[in-house]
Structure formats: C-alpha cells, structure tokens
Design a protein that fits this description.
Layout: H1 3-32, E1 34-38, E2 45-49, E3 54-58, H2 69-103, H3 126-129
Antiparallel strand pairs: 1-2, 2-3
Helix pairs in contact: 1-2
Length: 141
C-alpha cells in the first residue's frame, strides 16, 4: 500500500471513530433523558422518559384536594403534554447534534454521500404494480 492510500485509510478510520463516539454519546444521552414538567396551576408534576412513557406523577402541594375531577384531569394532562413535548424537543436536539458530528452539517443523520448519483427513477417500475393480465383460455394453451 502506498503512502497516499495509507493516509486516506488513516483519515477514514479516524472519521469513523469520531462518528462512532458521537453516536455512543447520543445513545447515552437518550437513555438518560427524562423531563419533569409542572402544570400551570402548580397542582401536578409529571415525569416522562425518552420514549414518552410516564415514569411519575406527583401532587407537590396537595392542591388537588380542592379541585374538581375535571380540573385535576386537565392539570395532569397539561403536565404530561408539556413533559412529552420537552422530551421530544430534547431528543431532536440530541440527534441533530449527533448528525452534525456524522456529516459535519446541521440536521443530517445520514452518512455523507456527496458524489453519488441521485436516483430519479422509481425503485419499482409502475408496470410491476399492476396485476398480471389474465390470459384467456383457448386454443394453443
């Protein structure tokens, strides 16, 4: 192997290591991601994990005791919705940050494919989507 190919191989390996480390960091951040949000009235706190699953609901100041069932339900839903929206926003931020490490540009998670031809024709030709023609029974079959 000549020096030029060896140097290119070293660069490619170093880039792969950087990308792999960025993905591992993003994965770790995602596994640890959890958000606690409070309803506007302060009656409910809800904690949500990265998958949107509720991991806890608290009533920090016992305000729920003087609330109607509907008002309490509204507060619970508001806290859950706020927490889930924040988790989603943080998840996108983590993946975008990892994407910048992967391609060197914002918001791209796919590998850099500059120089590859764009495929403009459909993957499956339209004729393949039509059912096969039935052949009439007759002479010669």
């Amino acid at each position: 192997m000549d020096a030029q190919h060896g140097s290119r191989l070293q660069q490619a390996l170093a880039a792969f290591v950087r990308k792999h480390e960025a993905l591992l960091k993003a994965e770790l951040k995602l596994t640890e991601l959890s958000v606690t949000a409070q309803s506007r009235d302060g009656a409910v706190e809800a904690t949500v994990g990265v998958d949107g699953e509720t991991s806890g609901v608290r009533f920090p100041n016992n305000m729920f005791q003087g609330m109607s069932g509907q008002a309490l339900a509204d507060s619970v839903m508001e806290a859950l919705t706020t927490a889930r929206a924040e988790v989603a926003a943080r998840r996108v931020g983590i993946m975008e940050a990892a994407g910048r490490h992967l391609t060197g540009g914002p918001g791209h998670l796919a590998p850099d494919r500059r120089g590859l031809a764009l495929r403009t024709e459909p993957v499956t030709p339209p004729d393949a989507l039509r059912p096969p023609r039935r052949r009439a029974r007759g002479v010669g079959w």
